[in-house]
Amino acid sequence: MSESLLDYGSEMDEDLTLKIFNDGEEVQLLIKTAERHLSDAGKPSIAVTLESIQYPDDYDDIYVYIGIIIDEDTGKARKKKLSRLKEFYAAFGIDHTMPVTIEIDLPGKTGWGIVGVEDYQGNTKNTIKRFGVGS
Fold first, then answer.
1. Between 29 and which of 50, 60, 102, 133 could a Cys-Cys bridge form, CB atoms 3.0 to 4.6 Å apart?
2. Per-residue pLDDT tens for 51-85?
3. What is the model's pTM?
4. Are 108 and 18 in contact (CB under 8 A)?
């Protein structure tokens, strides 16, 4: 099968801009990917790519990092990370009493989140303000 770049001409005339959700909107989400991540500062997290279940092709993916507790985390820092992880687990129906293999067990799970809007390197993108058990 031979394809030419001209074959895409009519599609390129369409508006190809991916949408973002409004600040505070509740969205049903699918975990597309999840993997261990190390920040530039060497702090571990779970890097999660989320997709809208209702509009998978129209809205841009949402990328979030869920901090993993390290030995230096005490007091408030520890509680904040635990709270965010607990919220994430509850929203996606993940049993915190069972072992989880991030890359295998998380993709495909569905849940809800309240989206936020932020500027990142000159572009507007969605983030997750809070994970929750949706409507």
1. 50
2. 999 999 999 999 999 999 999 999 999 999 999 99
3. 0.86
4. no
